[in-house]
Amino acid sequence: MLITEGVKHVQISAQRKFKVNLAPAERQFLKTLIRKGSCKARILTRARILLLADTQQKDAIICQALGIVRSVVYDTRKHYVTGGLNRALYDLPHPGKARKLTGEQEAEVIAIACSEAPEGRVRWTMDLLTEAVNRKIGVSIGRTAVYKILLRNNIKPWRKKMWCIPFITPEYKKRMLDVLEVYERPYNHQFPVVCLDEKSKQLLSDTRATLRVRRGKPTKADYEYERHGTCNLFVAVEPKAGNGLSASPDTGQRRTMCHFSPIWWRMSTEKRKRLSWLRIISIPTAGRSCLT
Fold it and tell me: Which of the residues 147, 177, 194, 276 has the least number of beta carbons within 10 Å of its own beta carbon?
């Protein structure tokens, strides 16, 4: 009898401590939410708990009416009083599980996937790749984790072969890790890290005027076009600062290191008031090494 009275006293205290008094706008929002029924079941349950608690119903009656346990009612009351309506209805974002691999280790996984398949195999499979990663890196991960790393980097070793780097040599791996180490350094406005790359593009123009889009009809363009040579696009990006600039030299010129000099000069000139050192990373293409 004493235990029963003690439990009943605790329940009554909790109901008084976390008393639900909905505003008219909140009450209307919850009724609309339940009527639509387009959200998750646990959110609808919490909305019904709040509406019943707003009518000063006891927790035991709410549990019996909704077929839930007392802890759900208690948590909903508590979250509403301490955090408001959104906190009572929706869960806080979960931090998620910590990543098993560092940036350098993920780069090694990509390097292994882009290397030649083992002897006697035509291509890499997920099982072979997972075994090779666990053996060479020394970290126990599953095939799903390896697949997600390849997916994030848009790599499908079972469909394509790596053409720009046929062999992963110790020298290449050393340079690759040096570049990755530069990327992972904390941001310092006096020592910016600038990524520089270039690409050749064709200059094309339409031979006939394009018909603009109309209601129910898409834009119509003729398939014929006229060539106007090529153009080399140079882009410099400072990723951790959100800055960038681009330039285009004269068309038809061969790309040399002289064309990169104006880009470097513009980056250093625009930052001359706060610049102590400019660190430039050139993204390598076929047969070209990294410049740091």
Answer: 276
